[in-house]
Write a structure and sequence with these properties.
Elements: H1 17-40, H2 45-52, H3 56-63, H4 71-81, H5 85-89, E1 107-108, E2 114-118, E3 128-135, E4 139-143, E5 151-158, E6 161-165, E7 168-172, E8 177-181, E9 186-190, E10 196-203
C-alpha cells in the first residue's frame, strides 16, 4: 500500500515531523488555558459558544485536545473572552523568558497560505505581542476583529501588501508600515508572484 503524501507547507516544502510535535504542545496549552478561562468565568460550553461565535462542538474538541484550532478560531475565542492572544496560546509569565527560533510554533490559516510565527515569548510584555507573518503569492487573509482598543502595526519586510480596514485600503511595499484599529475586520492581501513577509505588532487596549 502506497504511503500517503503529506500536504506541502506555506513555502512548498513538506511540514516536518517536529512541526507536528510543536502543534501538539500548542494544542495542549490552548486546551488548558481555555478551560481555565472558562472555569474562572463559571461558563458552560454553550455560553462560551454564544460569546465567541465558535460552535460548542469545536470548543469541546479544543478543550479535549482532539483538534488543532486554526489561527482564525483562536482569534475568535481570544476576542470573545476579551483576553490577549498570548494569554490563550502561551505559558505562565516568568522574570526572564527566551524564545528560540526553533521553538516558535507557527499558526496557519485553514488553507495554509497564511502563517503567523511569534517573535517574542508569550510571557513577555503584557498588552504587546509581535509576530512574523508570511502570506503566499496571490493570497489574502481575512482577520477577525480583535478586542476594543486593540491597535496593530504592520511593517512590510519583503513583497507587497494591500491592507484593508473597513472601507479603506492601502498598497504597501518593502519598508512601508501601517498602523490601524484592529477592532474591526481587516484583510491582508499579497497580489505579488512570490511570498511576502511582514512584522506585526499588536497592542491591546488597557
Amino acid at each position: 500500500m502506497a504511503k500517503k503524501q503529506r500536504p506541502a507547507g506555506l513555502r512548498g516544502a513538506p511540514i516536518p515531523s517536529g512541526d507536528e510535535i510543536g502543534a501538539a504542545e500548542l494544542a495542549g496549552r490552548v486546551a488548558e488555558n481555555l478551560r481555565a478561562q472558562r472555569k474562572r468565568r463559571a461558563m458552560s460550553l454553550d455560553e462560551l459558544a454564544q460569546l465567541t461565535g465558535v460552535s460548542r462542538a469545536a470548543l469541546s474538541q479544543i478543550e479535549t485536545r482532539k483538534t488543532n484550532p486554526t489561527i482564525s478560531v483562536l482569534w475568535k475565542i481570544a476576542s470573545g473572552l476579551g483576553i490577549a492572544f498570548a494569554d490563550l496560546i502561551g505559558e505562565t509569565r516568568a522574570e526572564l523568558s527566551v524564545l528560540r527560533r526553533g521553538e516558535a510554533q507557527p499558526l496557519r490559516s485553514m488553507d495554509g497560505k497564511f502563517e503567523s510565527r511569534p517573535l517574542m515569548p508569550a510571557s513577555g510584555i503584557p498588552q504587546v505581542e509581535m509576530y512574523e507573518l508570511r502570506l503566499a503569492a496571490r493570497a489574502r487573509h481575512v482577520s477577525e476583529p480583535h478586542g476594543p482598543g486593540t491597535r496593530e502595526i504592520v511593517v512590510v519586510l519583503s513583497g507587497t501588501m494591500k491592507m484593508s480596514v473597513g472601507d479603506h485600503s492601502d498598497e504597501l511595499g518593502p519598508g512601508d508600515s501601517v498602523v490601524f484599529d484592529a477592532n474591526k475586520p481587516h484583510v491582508y492581501e499579497n497580489s505579488g508572484g512570490s511570498e511576502a513577509r511582514y512584522h506585526n505588532v499588536i497592542v491591546y487596549g488597557r
